[in-house]
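Onboarding guide, step 5: your first structure request.
Type a short instruction followed by the sequence, for example:

Predict the 3D structure of this protein.
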Amino acid sequence: MNTKLMEGLIGAKMNVNQIDTPFKVFKEARHKGDTATMERAMGYVNDCTARAEEYSAEADKGLEEDAREAREKEKLELEKRIEKRREERELLEEEKIERKDADTVEVSEEGMALLKADTELDSTSSSESKAEAAEPVIYSKTGVVNQEESGVTVSVSV
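The system replies with structure tokens like these:
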């Protein structure tokens, strides 16, 4: 809270409270018919009201300053967030560039021929070895193959 705002609010409140006393004097003087006292009391009331308005104007100025400071602060925070996002974007772009510079592997024609020969050998292997390779294996908590449950077979007829 701004100092001007606090001072304005407190000053306005105090002057509004001070109006009560001369206004009571004005009412008493009116009942008595004393016009000189009534005029003096109304002078004090007007003075207190004018001071209260001055303090109110000062409080308004303080509010404007607070709003301006809040806008500036928000603007600075927004700029910081934008800068942070730019930095993150730059880092991501650098990572993309690094990935593009990564090593690539190219297989020669001789390697492709060897790969085809290897796959042909696999396809001509016996059906027993394929069945053994396709058999599910169950491991225990220690990571050892559990032999007891691996022999269980389940058949479903439709």
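Each response can be followed by summary notes, for example: The mean pLDDT is 82.
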